[in-house]
Amino acid sequence: MAKKRPALWRLALDNIWIVICLVAAGSCLALTVQLLLQTPPLDTPSPNIRLALGVPALFGTLAGLYGLVAGSVLALRRAKERRQANQLRRLQRRVDQLDSLRRGQRARLEELSALREVATVVNQESDFAIIAEKVLELVHGLLEPVESTIFLLDEERDELRPFGQYAEGKFRGEGKVLTRNIPEFSLSEFESHSVICRVHGQELHAIVPLKVEERIPGVLFMVWPTDARPAQEQVEEFNRTRRRLLQEITHHISLAVKTKYLHTKAVVDALTRLYSRSHFNSQMQAAIEYAERTGEGFSLIVADIDHFKHVNDRYGHDTGDVILRKVAKRIRDALRKYDSAYRYGGEEIAILLPRTNMAQALGIGERLRRMVEQRKFRSGEGRLIDVTISVGVSQFKPGDNPETLFKRADQQLYRAKEEGRNRVCPAAA
Q1: Counting Cβ atoms within 10 Å, is residue 334 exposed (0-12), middle (13-18) or buried (19+)?
Q2: Where are the chain's structural domains?
Q3: 254: helix, coil or strand?
Q4: Is pTM beyond 0.70 here?
Q5: Residue 156, SS3?
């Protein structure tokens, strides 16, 4: 670091012309006094010579004094201009700071507005698929990723499976997510990191856990393009500009996942992953009320696994549970999006079919029967077991209540069993 110059020396250098004029004026003044009032520095006493030398020296003194005054005026002007320039620079820096603060406040306001929209969606919507779509769309507007995907834990397979994805300006629901393997990571990493951010090839990946109490039933996975900078520098920029907002958004998604998780625990049977009997009762009542209000009918299927007691007695209850779970999954996967299946009790399954008449319901029941019959089911010990189901079908009639509608379908189920099982029987119109 350069040594700082003394103040007087710095002042002299900054006003060199004033110094020169001051020296010149002083020298000329001294010469003038010596020539006019004292013995001149010449070997002659002639007054004419003293006068001839004294007059120019006097004019030199006046010129030096003029230069001194003019230089002082210019120096003062330059000093004033420098002060004004310094003040202007300070004001400009202040303006830049205020502008940066304003932009930061505006960006934060936009973030808070988006977070409020996210919270509103989470609080007002009950369908997690709708929540996921709306929230991921808001995330793209704020953080501008190439792709964002919500993965939820499949407890049957104990693996993360894609639930919804927003990419290329549109949302893709479960089953339509573009194929992409989430980078390997361990849930234990979240014990020390709330966000996992890494550069992977030409992409920057961020994985954020969706926490429900002490469990992690899912993650939010996001992708951004990388550039030529070192990976560590890009990760640091992510932590500085995106991390906090992403965590705030993920908190709201976690609340939605928690609601979905608690709702699932309340209305979904743990073994079959079908809806519970209590949920069936409430949904049946709601379907009847809707049909009476709109005149739009629906149908009910009641199915039962044939000879299920024999399966339990011969192969054991563990094998019976495996068969029941696989049959339930087969039925659940084969239904239309707006149909719903319930474990009514034991191995008995009830299926609500909205906007479906008797002919359509019979077709669905027959399709389900064939799908179960045509597939051999493997027990937990690896045995192949033939399984069939019997099906009873009824259609809503004006004046029906849950008990009468279910009773007609259940009667047809028993009729199917009495007639030899592995068949579909409709209730009388």
Answers
A1: middle
A2: 8-93, 127-260, 277-426
A3: helix
A4: no
A5: coil
Q: What DSSP letter does each residue of 107-121 carry, written as one string?
A: HHHHHHHHHHHHHHH
Question: Token digits for 6?
Answer: 């003394």
CA 279 to chain CA centroid, nearest Å: 33
Q: Which DSSP string corresponds to 35-71?
A: HHHS--SSS---HHHHHHHHHHHHHHHHHHHHHHHHH
Please tell me the CATH code under which domain 277-426 is placed: 3.30.70.270
Distance, in Å, from the CA atom of 187 to the CA atom of 293, rounded to the nearest integer, reads 49
- Measured between alpha carbons, how far is 47 from 17 in angstroms, rounded to an integer? 34
Q: Which of 5-9, 23-27, 182-186, 382-386 has the lowest mean pLDDT?
A: 5-9
pLDDT for 82-109, tens place per residue?
A: 888 889 889 888 888 888 878 777 766 7
CATH number of 127-260: 3.30.450.40
3-state secondary structure labels for all residues of 332-384: HHHCCCCCEEEEEECCEEEEEEECCCHHHHHHHHHHHHHHHHCCEEECCCCCE
* Within this chain, domains 127-260 and 277-426 share the same CATH topology: no
